[in-house]
Design goal:
The protein contains 11 helices and 8 strands. The protein has 274 residues and is α/β, with parallel strands linked by helices. The chain has a single domain, classed as TIM Barrel (Alpha-Beta Barrel), CATH 3.20.20.60. Strand 4, helix 6 and strand 5 form a beta-alpha-beta unit. The protein is globular. 3-methyl-2-oxobutanoic acid binds next to strand 6.
Length: 274
């Protein structure tokens, strides 16, 4: 038996190779049917902890648990076969120590079959990123607006709009790249800073509200499909599925009220008595 297994999904080195080349196409996804639909069109699927708000109606990502992430990541893995799947480490699952982060990241990788994890934080998480990557767990970093810090920051604040903020954020980007992250999400970041960071580090920057100066973009899928009635202002919507679903449900409700719904014999012919 050959010792080499064919890896059919996009690999971490393939994502790294996007640096300075073709932009990385990335969307969030939390369930099997949508994973199947977007699989061949994106390089990377992120099972983001934004699923707390989108799927579970939470106010922030802070209530998301490791078990929730694992459940949704399993569904996405079943629905997809090509894109690289990265899973967010939820609040409380990695900050305490590199060893705790490893244990929880290993659970994600073992139980879901996903390739990589993402965690929030720059220089302060560099030791953990190095610890995980040296032990076989690819890490995508996430700096700029980091939603898990909402209570410290007093809200979701965009970053880099004053030059005074730039040195710390540039140091964060350098620290996560030097620690071995294979890509870094820049969230809610002013374009001049996103451009500087993209030029400064050797790994792809994947922006969300951080401009086309980045090496790729990630959006929350429900935002770009028009399912979120209050999407962030920077999101371009490619469909209006919210209104489409409402119209379809209204038509369905009318059909049911008018008794326009079939029985099985409309689809499967009646059987003759033997
Ligand atoms: O959880 C998420 O969806 C994310 C993206 C916003 C990058 O982290």
């Amino acid at each position: 038996m050959s010792m080499q297994t064919q890896i059919k999904r996009v690999t971490v080195p393939e994502i790294r190779a996007h640096k300075g080349a073709k932009p990385v196409v990335c969307l969030t996804c939390y369930h099997a049917h949508t994973a199947k639909l977007l699989d061949k069109h994106v390089d990377l699927i992120l099972v983001g902890d934004s699923l707390g708000m989108v799927m579970h109606g939470l106010e922030s990502t802070l209530g998301v648990t490791l078990d929730m992430m694992i459940t949704h990541a399993k569904a996405v893995m079943r629905g997809s076969s090509r894109a690289l799947v990265t899973v967010d480490m939820p609040f409380g699952s990695y900050e305490e120590s590199p060893a705790v982060a490893f244990r929880n990241a290993a659970r994600i990788i073992q139980e879901t079959g996903a390739t990589a994890v993402k965690l929030e934080g720059g220089a302060r998480m560099a030791e953990t990123i190095q610890y995980l990557t040296q032990r076989g767990i690819p890490v995508m970093a996430h700096i700029g607006l980091t939603p898990q810090m909402v209570n410290i920051q007093g809200g979701f604040r965009t970053t880099g709009r004053t030059e005074a903020e730039w040195p710390a954020l540039e140091a964060d980007a350098k620290a996560v790249a030097d620690a071995g992250a294979f890509a870094v999400v820049l969230e809610g970041m002013a374009e001049p800073l996103a451009a500087r960071i993209t030029g400064l580090i050797a790994i792809p920057t994947i922006g969300i509200g951080a401009s086309a100066a980045c090496d790729g973009q990630v959006l929350v899928m429900e935002d770009m499909l028009g399912l979120n009635p209050n999407p962030p202002k920077f999101v371009r919507q490619y469909a209006q599925l919210g209104p489409a679903i409402e119209a379809a449900v209204e038509a369905y409700a009318q059909d049911v009220r008018d008794r326009r719904f079939p029985g099985v014999e409309n689809v499967y012919p009646m059987k003759k008595a033997q």
